[in-house]
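Support reply, case 0932

Customer input (verbatim):
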Amino acid sequence: MRFYFILLLPAVLALSSSLEAADVRSLSRSEAIALSLANNRELGIAALEIERAAASFRWAGRLANPQLEVSRSGDAIGLDDGERNYEVAFSQRFPITSRLKKEKGLKKYEVLLAEAEIADRRREIAGEVDLAIVDLLATRKQIELQRKLLMLNREIVNFLKQQQKRGEVSSLDVMQATLTGRKLEQAAKGQDAVETQKLLALNKVLGIEPTSSVTITETLSLPGSAPATEPDFSPILGRRPDYVLALAKIDEANAAIALEEANRWGDISVRLFVEGENAVDEPIGLERNSFAGFGVSIPLPLRNRNQEGIEKAKINRKAAGKGVEAASFTIRSECENAFQQRRNSWELATEASGELLDLAEQNLKEYRKAYQEGQASLIQVQQAQQQVLELQDASVQFTADYHRAAATVRYVSGDYPNLNITPSSK
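Our regenerated output:
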């Protein structure tokens, strides 16, 4: 048994390594969004609404089923002379107007409405992924800074311990530096816990296992030039599924009006029949005869001309027009606010990551050198270190705020792949 286990051990280790590798994913933002959209269970359910609407469109505009009528009568309860009548008829209803075509046209817009609603949900999911990635990258950047400061503090502690052995510093200095290191370690552990939470949140929106580790290939870097503050609304409106949805509702309302107007006239009914009878004809007696013919039934719209349905459909058309105006106003307001917020965030992040931070890092470097030469105190070094930590943390926060604002711009602009829907009207 032990021999077989030794033989199988390399295969087991290889399988274990492959499983561990499968749990590590390296993704760009676009790849993460595509993965999230592909894995989202809600979208899979919502896609059935498109299939339902498509099925309704496919089977709409058909004639009603024909009717077959069969009847037979006799005089058994009367004179009982053997007289008999029978009739076989075939009837079919036909619309006078183009009602069936209008009905199919209306169903076509229901398919577009379903597609637009799902596209808007896809946009929301893409926005959630974007923000979750920014939060994760910001947390990991803060962890990186904490580790750098922790390494700097350890160098200070080791230097102090050497000086303590030579009797150049007291044990209180060593203890103080060690305490500072413990605080940094504690803060780093707290950031590790936050990273775990952010990773779980990202895995959830990506639709992958909670234990999977995700590496984002992009970083929280700032663009060299200031972003634009004036959005171009024409392409944005075309990319926003909610605006396309509002436009589609106008077309749907127009199609509904046309259908309701077509319903002013009911369907005519065409009837083909064959009739036979056995009747007593004096003085000949019982004779047999047959008839064939057709009939037409035409409804007259004298009282009910579907006025109620037409009026309601026209009200719905007015509501759809106001819906487009409201959607356009909302989108423009969102874009102007998001673009301006992105510009403001870029300016703050650029300032926080620029000259002031460089000056603080140079100041810390000089204080450490001065301390090693006995020209500065430990407190001054720790204060300089704390100042760098605060400025670096602020830089990360402002940079993350910029990327959140950029993600919001992308969200309100609808600038995601595979979301475009072609509106049927402008």
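We compared this against your earlier run and they match. Two observations from our side: The longest helix spans residues 99-165. Residues 25-62+101-265+307-413 form a domain with the Outer membrane efflux proteins (OEP) fold (CATH 1.20.1600.10). Please reopen the case if you see a mismatch on your end.
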